[in-house]
C-alpha cells in the first residue's frame, strides 16, 4: 500500500505501530507472519505490514475491534553493514559524546549548562588530539626516528630499508623520514573526516516534519507558560550545522597535531644552529599555536541549537578550517624535509611532553566538569540520579581512560614488535625502541585498577546471592505456592530477580573505575616526572624489592594494555566477518548512539536522527489521512524512540496517539543517567503530552522497569502492576508444561499485553471521517479519559467511565486530560 493511498470516507481505523528494541528484529518476527510487505521506507529503515493487511484502510470492516499491526524496523541503522564493526575503534569518541547528555537538569540557556557543554567539547577535542598523537608516536617516533636509525631494527624490518640511515639514501635524512611517516596519521585523519562526512549526510540531514518549523504549544511543565520538553524542541533531532562545524574543527586539529610533530622535531635541531631554518621554525611554531587558539575558539563558541530548526550551514568555516590546516601541514612537511647536513636521529622525539600535557589537561577538564555538574545538581537534587549528578564527569573520565588504553596499546605493541625480545620502555638489551615513559607508567597502573575493581565486583556478587535468598519468600507469596512449593523453581526465579537488580548497581562500578582512573592517572604522571622521562630509570633509588615489584607490574601492564588493544582489533575483525558478532556490536551501538553527536563529530552516528523523524512522519501522516486511533508500542530501546517521537508530534496528532511501553529503560537507565532529558520532570511531561500511556515491566527484567510517574494522589500514573515472570509457577491445566523465565524478552506473550493495548485503544477518541474535498479529517474534540487527576494503575481498563466536560476542555487546551493509567 502506498502512503498516498486516500483514506476511506468513514470507519474506525486503528493502528498499532510496533518498534523493536536492541539487537533488532525482522518484520516477520515482529508481525508473526512470514509474508510481509514494505509500506514505506528503504533497506536501512522501513515500515512493514502483513501482506494481507497492506490495504487495511480500504477494508475497515475486516478489522472491527482490533488494530492493524505495523512494524518499524531500524536495526540496519546500527548493525546492518559489516564495515560498521570498525566503529568499535571509535568507542572513546562515543563515550565522550554520552557525557554531554548526562548533565543535570537546568533551564534552557543556563550559563552553567553552556559551560558544561563547552568542557565536554574540549574533552572530546583532546581525544582527537590524543588519537592523532598516538599514531604520530608510532609512525614518526618509533618507526621513522628510532627504528630507521638502528641497524638491528632495520634488519628485522626490511620494509624500512629505504628509510635506513645506515644506507644513506635520499629518504634517509631524518626530516624526510619524518615527512614520509607523516602520511600515516594524515591519512587517518582524512579517513575520519570522510566517514564523518558520509554519515553526516545520511543521518544528520534527516529533517523532522515541516510543521515543526513554526512555534508549538508548551508541553514541559504544568501551566500554559512552561517551556517545551527538551526532546520535543523542533531542532533537537537536527544537528546538521553543529556536527559540520565540529567535524571541520576536529579535522583541522588532527592535521595540526601532525604539523606540530614535524615542526617541533625539525625546530629542535635548527635552534642549535641559528639561521634561516631557525627563523622559519619559530614562524611555523607560532602559526601552529595561533591556529590552535582559533580552533579552541571555534569549538567553545557555539553549541547545539534546539529551540528552532536551524537550516543554516557555515560553508566557509567548514571548508576553510581543514583546508588551512592541511596547507600548514604541507608547509611543515617541506620545512622538515629541508636538507640539513649532519642532522642525525638519536634518542626519542618529545612525545613525553605531549602525552603528559594531554593527560593533565584531561584530568583538569574532568575535575572542572565535576564541579559544574555539582553546581547544576544542587537546586534539583534527585536521589535516583546516578552518582549524584556526577555521571557525566565519570563517563568523560572513562572516555579518556579508553583513549589512553588504545593509544598506549598501539605504542606498546608496535614498540614490542620493533624491539624484538625486549620489553617496551624497560631498557632491556636490544634495539631499545622506547615509547614515551608516561605510556609505560600508565600501563603499570592497569593491574592495580583491576584489583581495585575486583573489590566492588565481589561485594556485588555476595549481595546478589544474599538477595536471592531473601527473595524466596516473596516469590512464593507472589504465586501463592502454599503446599506446592518447589525449592528449585523458587530458587531459579529468585536468582533471576536478584541478577536483574545488578543493573541498579552500575553507578557504583562506574564511580569506582572513574575515581581510581583519575587518581592512578595522576600517579602515573608523577612517576614519569620523577623518572625524568628516561626509560629504565623509573625506580632508581627504591628498595630492590619495591623496584622489582614495580618493574614486574609495569611489564605486566605493558602486556595487558597491548592485549586490550589487540582485543579491540580482533573483535572488530571478527564482527566484520561474523553476522552474530556484528549483531552483538550492534546492540552496543543501539544503546550508545541514541544521542546526537553534540561533542565529538567522529563518534558513530546517531540513528535516532533518522528513526525519530521516521516515526514522527509516519504517525502524523497516517492520523491526518485516516483520522484513526494509533498506539505506538515500543519494547526496550524502541520505547525510548517511541517516547522521543511522541514528544515531536503536534498537538492535533497527539490527541489520536496512545503510548504503550514494555521492558522500557526510560527511567531505570535513561532517567538516572540522563536526568536533564528523562528525569522526573521530563517523564511527567511525557505523561501529560501523550493522550494515554501504559508501561509494563517484570521484576526479572534487567533493563526495563517502572517509569515512576505519580498521579496527583501519589499512586502510579503510568505503571501497571508488575507482570509475573514466569506466568505460572508450576504445572496447571492452562500451562501443562513448565513456563520459561522470559526476563527482558517476549512481552507480547503475556496475557496482560493485549489487554493493555485494547484498553488504550478504547480510551482514545473514535476515528473521525475524512472531510470531503480536503483529504484530511477535522481535528477531534479530544474527549478525555477518566481518572487523570487521581488515577492509579488502570490505564488498561477499557470499561472506565468518560470524564466530564471540564476534563474535555482541559484536553483541548493541551495542558491536561490524558489518561495516566
UniProtKB/TrEMBL annotation:
Q: Where are the transmembrane segments?
A: 85-103, 115-135, 178-195, 248-267, 279-299, 320-338, 353-376, 388-411, 439-462, 506-530, 542-569
Q: Does the keyword Heme apply?
A: no
Q: Where is this region: Disordered?
A: 205-225, 734-821
Task: Give the InterPro entries listed for this entry.
Answer: AB_hydrolase_fold
Biased composition range(s): Low complexity: 781-794
Q: Which UniProt keywords apply?
A: Membrane, Transmembrane, Transmembrane helix
Protein name per its UniProtKB record: Lipase family protein
Amino acid at each position: 500500500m502506498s502512503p498516498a493511498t486516500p483514506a476511506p470516507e468513514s470507519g474506525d481505523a486503528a493502528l498499532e505501530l510496533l518498534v523493536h528494541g536492541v539487537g533488532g528484529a525482522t518484520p516477520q518476527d515482529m508481525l508473526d507472519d512470514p509474508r510481509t510487505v514494505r509500506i514505506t521506507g528503504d533497506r536501512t529503515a522501513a515500515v512493514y505490514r502483513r501482506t494481507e493487511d497492506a490495504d487495511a484502510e480500504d477494508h475497515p470492516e475486516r478489522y472491527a475491534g482490533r488494530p492493524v499491526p505495523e512494524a518499524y524496523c531500524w536495526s540496519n541503522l546500527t548493525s546492518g553493514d559489516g564495515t560498521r564493526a570498525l566503529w568499535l575503534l571509535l568507542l572513546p569518541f562515543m563515550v565522550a559524546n554520552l557525557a554531554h547528555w548526562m548533565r543535570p537538569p537546568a533551564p534552557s540557556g543556563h550559563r552553567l549548562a553552556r559551560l558544561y557543554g563547552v568542557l565536554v567539547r574540549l574533552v572530546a577535542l583532546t581525544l582527537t588530539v590524543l588519537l592523532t598523537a598516538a599514531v604520530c608516536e608510532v609512525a614518526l617516533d618509533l618507526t621513522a626516528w628510532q627504528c630507521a636509525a638502528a641497524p638491528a631494527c632495520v634488519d628485522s624490518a626490511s620494509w624500512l630499508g629505504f628509510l635506513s640511515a645506515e644506507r644513506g639514501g635520499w629518504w634517509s635524512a631524518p626530516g624526510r623520514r619524518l615527512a614520509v611517516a607523516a602520511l600515516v596519521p594524515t591519512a587517518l585523519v582524512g579517513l575520519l573526516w570522510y566517514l564523518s562526512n558520509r554519515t553526516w549526510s545520511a543521518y544528520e540531514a534527516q529533517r523532522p516534519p515541516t510543521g515543526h518549523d513554526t512555534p508549538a504549544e508548551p508541553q514541559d511543565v504544568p501551566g500554559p507558560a512552561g517551556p517545551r520538553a527538551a526532546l520535543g524542541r523542533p531542532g533537537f533531532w537536527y544537528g546538521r550545522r553543529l556536527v559540520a562545524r565540529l567535524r571541520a574543527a576536529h579535522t583541522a586539529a588532527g592535521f595540526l597535531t601532525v604539523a606540530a610533530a614535524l615542526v617541533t622535531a625539525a625546530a629542535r635541531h635548527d635552534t642549535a644552529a641559528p639561521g634561516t631554518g631557525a627563523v622559519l621554525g619559530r614562524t611555523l611554531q607560532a602559526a601552529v599555536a595561533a591556529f590552535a587558539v582559533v580552533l579552541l575558539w571555534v569549538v567553545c563558541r557555539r553549541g547545539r541549537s534546539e529551540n528552532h530548526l536551524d537550516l543554516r550551514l557555515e560553508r566557509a568555516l567548514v571548508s576553510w578550517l581543514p583546508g588551512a590546516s592541511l596547507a600548514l601541514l604541507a608547509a611543515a612537511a617541506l620545512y622538515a624535509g629541508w636538507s640539513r647536513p649532519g642532522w642525525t636521529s638519536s634518542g626519542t622525539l618529545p612525545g613525553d611532553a605531549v602525552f603528559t600535557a594531554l593527560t593533565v589537561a584531561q584530568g583538569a577538564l574532568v575535575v572542572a566538569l565535576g564541579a559544574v555538574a555539582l553546581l547544576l545538581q544542587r537546586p534539583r537534587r534527585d536521589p535516583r540520579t546516578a552518582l549524584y549528578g556526577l555521571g557525566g564527569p565519570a563517563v568523560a573520565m572513562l572516555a579518556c581512560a579508553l583513549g589512553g588504553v588504545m593509544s598506549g596499546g598501539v605504542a606498546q605493541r608496535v614498540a614490542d614488535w620493533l624491539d624484538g625480545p625486549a620489553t617496551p620502555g624497560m631498557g632491556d638489551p636490544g634495539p631499545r625502541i622506547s615509547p614515551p615513559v608516561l605510556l609505560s607508567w600508565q600501563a603499570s597502573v592497569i593491574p592495580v585498577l583491576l584489583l581495585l575493581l575486583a573489590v566492588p565486583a565481589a561485594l556485588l556478587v555476595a549481595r546478589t546471592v544474599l538477595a536471592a535468598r531473601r527473595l524466596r519468600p516473596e516469590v512464593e507469596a507472589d504465586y501463592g505456592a502454599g503446599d506446592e512449593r518447589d525449592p528449585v523453581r523458587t530458587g531459579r526465579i529468585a536468582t533471576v530477580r536478584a541478577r536483574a537488580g545488578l543493573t541498579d548497581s552500575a553507578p557504583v562500578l562506574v564511580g569506582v573505575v572513574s575515581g581510581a582512573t583519575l587518581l592512578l592517572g595522576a600517579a602515573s604522571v608523577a612517576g614519569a616526572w620523577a623518572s625524568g622521562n628516561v626509560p629504565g630509570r623509573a625506580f632508581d633509588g627504591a628498595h630492590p624489592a619495591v623496584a622489582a615489584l614495580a618493574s614486574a607490574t609495569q611489564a605486566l601492564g605493558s602486556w595487558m594494555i597491548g592485549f586490550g588493544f589487540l582485543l579491540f582489533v580482533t573483535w572488530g575483525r571478527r564482527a566484520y566477518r561474523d553476522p552474530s558478532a556484528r549483531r552483538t556490536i550492534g546492540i552496543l551501538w543501539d544503546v550508545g548512539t541514541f544521542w546526537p553527536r553534540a561533542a565529538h563529530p567522529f563518534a558513530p552516528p546517531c540513528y535516532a536522527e533518522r528513526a525519530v523523524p521516521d516515526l514522527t512522519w509516519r504517525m502524523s501522516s497516517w492520523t491526518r489521512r485516516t483520522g484513526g486511533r494509533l498506539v505506538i508500542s515500543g519494547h526496550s530501546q524502541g520505547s525510548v524512540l517511541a517516547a522521543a517521537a511522541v514528544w515531536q508530534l503536534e498537538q492535533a496528532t497527539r490527541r489520536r496517539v496512545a503510548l504503550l511501553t514494555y521492558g522500557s529503560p526510560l527511567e531505570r537507565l535513561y532517567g538516572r543517567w540522563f536526568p536533564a532529558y528523562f528525569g522526573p520532570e521530563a517523564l511527567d511531561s511525557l505523561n501529560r503530552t501523550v493522550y494515554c500511556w501504559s508501561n509494563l515491566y517484570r521484576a526479572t527484567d534487567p533493563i526495563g522497569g517502572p517509569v515512576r510517574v505519580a498521579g496527583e494522589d501519589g499512586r502510579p500514573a503510568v505503571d501497571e502492576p508488575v507482570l509475573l515472570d514466569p506466568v505460572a509457577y508450576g504445572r496447571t491445566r492452562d500451562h501443562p508444561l513448565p513456563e520459561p523465565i522470559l526476563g527482558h524478552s517476549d512481552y507480547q506473550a503475556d496475557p496482560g499485553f493485549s489487554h493493555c493495548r485494547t484498553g488504550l485503544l478504547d480510551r482514545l477518541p473514535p476515528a473521525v471521517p475524512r472531510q470531503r474535498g480536503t483529504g484530511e479529517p477535522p481535528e477531534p474534540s479530544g474527549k478525555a479519559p477518566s481518572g487523570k487527576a487521581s488515577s492509579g494503575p488502570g490505564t488498561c481498563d477499557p470499561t472506565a467511565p468518560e470524564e466530564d466536560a471540564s476534563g474535555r476542555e482541559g484536553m483541548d487546551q493541551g495542558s491536561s486530560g490524558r489518561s495516566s493509567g
